[in-house]
Amino acid sequence: MTNRLAIILFVLILALLVADGTLNDGAATLFMLKKFAKLTEWMAFWR
User: Fold this and answer.
1) How far, in Å, CA of 11 to CA of 18, rounded?
2) Total domains present in the chain
3) What is the span of the domain harbouring residue 19?
4) Sign of the four-CA dihedral 45, 32, 18, 5
5) For 1-47, how does the pLDDT look when each residue is reduced to its tens digit (9 = 90+)?
6) What is the pLDDT of residue 30?
7) Are 15 and 22 in contact (CB under 8 A)?
8) Which phi and psi angles does 2 have, rounded to 5°?
9) What pTM does this model have?
């Protein structure tokens, strides 16, 4: 991955997080974090 591509991805993710925070009060981010926590627990079980 080149530096240019990494910067573009970072700016895109940051813009999506800001848009979610302003337009949706962060509900989508909270939902994804909860799903990630459940995935982490599930992966720990199989370890």
Assistant:
1) 10
2) 1
3) 3-46
4) positive
5) 899 999 999 999 999 999 999 999 999 999 999 999 999 999 998 77
6) 97
7) no
8) -80, 165
9) 0.74
